[in-house]
Amino acid sequence: MEIPNSEKISYTVLFLISFFMLFTFSPNPLSANEAGAEKIIKEQCTACHRITGEAKSRFELRAPDLMWAGVKFKRPWLVSFLTGNEKNVYQKNYRWDLSRKPAKHIALSGEEAEAVADYIKKHLVDPRVKKDAIDLSHFTELQASFGRQLFIDHSCTGCHQIMDNGKPMGGLQSATFFDSGKRLNKDWILRFNSNPPDFVPHSGEFVADVSGLGLHYITGFIATEGDDSFKFYEPWKSEYFKNASSKRGKVIYKEYCAQCHGASGAGDGPAASGLEPKPAVHARMALDQLPMDYLYNVVYYGGKAVGKSHYMPYWGLTLGEQGVADVIAHMRETFRGGSEVAAAPGKKTGPSGVCPQPRKTRKAPARFQNMKNPLSANSANIRAGEKLFMKKAKPLACAQCHGKNGDGQGALGKALKPAPRNFTCGPMMKDISDGQLYWIIKNGSSGTGMMAFKSLKDTQVWQLIRYIRELGKQ
Ligand code: HEC
Ligand code: HEC
Ligand code: HEC
Ligand code: HEC
């Protein structure tokens, strides 16, 4: 977003006037606490930090500018930082050209820090940062993951570190974002992201080609990362779903979904013959048994968002939340196909009866083939794998397709071609290497219903493989 020059100037003027008023004609004299805080800041902070003036290059500064600190930081973090209880934000020193070792920041007593934080909150504000400029009350966990991906795609990790797979990832040049959600205020992040040079000109900062929804996602990601108290919105628990109408949904299905999934959900719409994987055969799926978060995410955000094919479009912008709720209501009422096949007693090869399975799965690259499971086959690892398999894995638990017994006969499994792997088929499974299993779980099996589980940590993938190996021993 570009800010016109004239507006920049008027902001600056406003800004200067407001400071002038604060320090000169303030109609309310400072309270004892405020006067004390102001004294601390003038005596102990302004030697390094500026609290008034225009943004400058960090090459002319000793420490980050604080004239907008009141709208930039969350108060609890600020107090914690000022009492010496936070890690350095800049791991290679703010002035990385001078020294590589970050110095320890001066610490205040708890009481002083509270007073200084109050003072900062009240007086160091920036009129460019508008309260509630970004609304995160409808921000979902999946949107945060889009923001994270954009953060990576747009080189942000070139200079800012985030956690990946339980480890720090990225360059150490600038502020770390491990727990940016605890530190930074959402409205400040939005304004900063909209034009970084307004705050840190000629400091190595970067203007990215992100706008509209992308800006919303990336800002939401930074504003929530590491903040456990943030409650993500769960659309499937909203009023839209309470008021959903399968009658309206039926019309939507005909107008939008039938072109691929077919008028009766047989997967035979006019577009289908050119697609691989084929559109899901809803008529054979127990869609009423699928978790709502999965159904919502695949319909609203499309196949790619849940690790599946991008041939399945994202419908949210076309249909809105109510439309998505309606079409889901229709599908859940109409498509109640294959419930899980009960295990046939006494069959060694597993109830699917197909063992060995025809298997055309792509081979993992050589460097994966030789990987060995680093986790031992103890019961803790196997149980952790089982939990993920049955319930916890996102976007969708393995059992939904591979079945509770691991035989490939889950609620969704029967509708998929090729069929999900039958893990109970020991003679076939013993020829599939750990590295192959790892690679497919991480990346999916393209052209099939097997989705990529990008959000699983390595340890979780290896726990799953421990569990899968147990299934083959039965
Ligand atoms: C000797 C110089 C120095 C003094 C004195 C100093 N600071 Fe800092 N301050 C820094 C540096 C350098 C950083 C960046 C540190 C880091 O990597 O986290 C910093 C960071 C900060 C931050 C976080 C800024 C950001 O953008 O992330 C705040 C807030 C802050 N200082 C407030 C204060 C206050 C309030 C005082 C006075 C009580 C003070 N500082 C005194 C050097 C100083
Ligand atoms: C080439 C290096 C570089 C890249 C790439 C980069 N930034 Fe920055 N970023 C900076 C610099 C420099 C600053 C100012 C602070 C400083 O001097 O380190 C900064 C500051 C920030 C801040 C304020 C952090 C704070 O605590 O003060 C945010 C938010 C931010 N960047 C977001 C992003 C986003 C989002 C992207 C990707 C679209 C991105 N940055 C890409 C260099 C970079
Ligand atoms: C352009 C073709 C196309 C259209 C139009 C389309 N879909 Fe899909 N859909 C697909 C494909 C292809 C898949 C299978 C993706 C995969 O398995 O990787 C799919 C999968 C799905 C799934 C997931 C089932 C599973 O296997 O997990 C649901 C639910 C779904 N679509 C619902 C809808 C709804 C609702 C609409 C209409 C609003 C719709 N689709 C319109 C192509 C389409
Ligand atoms: C939406 C349905 C679906 C879900 C959910 C699913 N799978 Fe699969 N999976 C499949 C299908 C279909 C195949 C067969 C792919 C093929 O033939 O290449 C498959 C194949 C596999 C394979 C076989 C790789 C090979 O080389 O033979 C592994 C391993 C696997 N899945 C693991 C998992 C794990 C672990 C989970 C849960 C974290 C999971 N799957 C969730 C549908 C699914």
Secondary-structure map:
Elements: H1 5-25, H2 32-45, H3 69-72, H4 75-82, H5 110-123, H6 141-153, E1 162-164, E2 167-169, H7 180-183, H8 186-194, H9 213-224, H10 239-242, H11 246-261, H12 292-301, H13 316-334, H14 366-369, H15 379-392, H16 399-402, H17 426-429, H18 434-443, H19 458-471
The structure holds heme C (HEC) (4 copies).
Describe the structure.
- There is one protein chain.
- Helix content is 42%, strand content 1%.
- The protein is mostly helical and 474 residues long.
- It has three domains: 5-224, no CATH class; 236-331, Cytochrome c-like domain (Cytochrome Bc1 Complex, Chain D, domain 2), CATH 1.10.760; 366-471, Cytochrome Bc1 Complex, Chain D, domain 2.
- A two-stranded antiparallel sheet has the order 1-2.
- The longest helix has 21 residues, at 5-25.
- One heme C binds next to helix 8 and helix 9.
Task: Describe the structure in brief.
This protein has 474 residues and is mainly alpha-helical.
Arithmetic mean of pLDDT: 90
Helix and strand succession? Answer: HHHHHHEEHHHHHHHHHHHHH
- Order of strands, main sheet, comes to 1-2
Task: Characterize the overall form.
Answer: elongated
Taking pLDDT < 50 over at least 5 consecutive residues as the criterion, the unreliable ranges are 1-9, 339-353
**Structure classification:** mainly alpha
Largest sheet: 2 strands, antiparallel
| Proportion of residues in helical segments | 40-55%
How far apart are the first and last residues' alpha carbons, in Å?
Answer: 60 Å
Beta-strand fraction estimate:
under 5%
The molecules bound to the chains, other than polymers, are: heme C
